[in-house]
Amino acid sequence: GEKLPVETTVSFLIFYFTGNYSCGGELPIPSGYFSSPFYPGYYPNNLNCTWTIRTWNNYQGLFSNFRTECRFDYVEVYDGDLYSRVLGRYCSGSYVTLISTSNLLTILFHSDVSVTYPGFSAFYHSFYGTTGKYVYT
């Protein structure tokens, strides 16, 4: 009867990923797609991504699958550059319709230092509007 000591071994396997991702830029016309980084996976913290759409025509765009932390993470859409009138701030929902008075639309995606979600995806398409305004759906 001699008691042997009990030995406990704990092992950890840690995966660490860093990768390139798209975060803003000028979007091509007449149509295209863009999304928050890593969509439909969770977006990173501390983001300020800015996309611009510039055209001579009107636009129809479809924002879908919004899912961000509404209190601190959002998509903001401007009627022109970042110093122009804000058309809307979004954090959930889909099928957003926007009417712009300029040929430039700026989209800002902001995330803070904590809590992330899957983010958003968006499709846009150029068309000639009959109202004389730029329409983004």
UniProtKB/TrEMBL annotation:
* CDD domains xrefs: CUB (cd00041)
**Name the record gives this protein:** CUB domain-containing protein
The signal peptide annotation in the UniProt record is none
List each copy of the CUB domain by range: 23-127
InterPro entries, A to Z: CUB_dom, Sperma_CUB_dom_sf
- Which Pfam family, giving just one, matches this sequence? CUB
Keywords carried by this UniProt record? Disulfide bond, Repeat
